[in-house]
Structure formats: C-alpha cells, structure tokens
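subagent[fold] <- orchestrator: predict structure for attached chain, return tokens only, no commentary.
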Amino acid sequence: MPPPREHTTERLLLRAPREDDAEAIFSRYASDPEVTRLLGWPRHRSVDDTRVFLAFADRHWQDGTDYPYLIVSRADGVLLGGTGLTPDEPHLAMTGYVLARDAWGRGYATEAARAMVDLAFAMPELWRLYAYSHVSHAASERVLAKIGMTREGTLRRHTVFPNLGTSEPQDVAMWARVRRDKLRP
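subagent[fold] -> orchestrator:
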C-alpha cells in the first residue's frame, strides 16, 4: 500500500512535487551550496536540473518505487524543503530530508521526519526505516535521534557526496528504526 500523496502535520503540508514547483525548489534549496553540501545528490546548477528531478519524482510516484515529498508551511504556503520514502525491499525503506537555510533550527526537520516514520509504518509491509547521515552532520544526527532512530554504527567509505568536491566515498552514520521501537522521551 503506497503512502498518500499528501500528509499534514501540525505545521506542515507534505505533498508530492508538481511540475510548477521547479522555480521554488531550485531557488529555495536545490541550488544552495551550503544546503546541499552534505547531500547525496548533486546541487542543481539550473532550473532544468530541477525539472529532471520533478520528472523523476512523477515517474517514481506512478510506478511506486519512490515517494518524494515537498515540505510546505501550512501557515503561509512557503516551500521549506523536501523529504520522502524510498522502499528498498518489501520490508524496508530509506528516508532523508533537506531544508532551505532559512528553515533551519525551527523543528521542521524533526516534524517532517516524524511524519515519514508515521507514513512508513502505516505501510503494513514495512518493518524497518533507515537513514544515512554524514558523520560530521551533528544537526542531522540530532533530528534522527529525536524521531526514535538508533545509531547503529558507522559505514566507512560508504557514500560519495558530490557537493564536497571529492569523488572519495565518505563515512556515514547508519540510523534506523524498526516497527516495534518506541519513541524515546
């Protein structure tokens, strides 16, 4: 059972991207060198790069292989970032998030990531939700801990971060939550 195309939280609307989101995605976060520095996808150099992402998102929503969401403020409709669920096997999925710089430090990442936990475990076939974080990204690790994920270890020389200016794989922290885990206080 796929997740819904829209989901709301107290402050956020999480929704599938649309073709007319290209300019906002590009200008709000996808082209920002600081925002994309520790992400696993290349920074967008033009709105055409963003349009390629949107075509990818639409195709994968249709075939059920990936569920990207945009994070939008319910209060004013401003695009704040993106998140999503990527099923790997019938029983597990990966999540992650990105926020525009002016949305940092306001709890939006935690709220969006908690929503991904809720959506993931509403899918009866999923038993494990995981995320990777560059080992130097302390803010991301705090978010993952807040949503009840457990740091399971370090995967050495695991992921190339294309915006770091090196093709050398970097160490990442492996975080996961399984269906039976309770949220820690």
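orchestrator: received. Logging for downstream: The chain has a mean pLDDT of 96. The longest strand covers residues 79-89.
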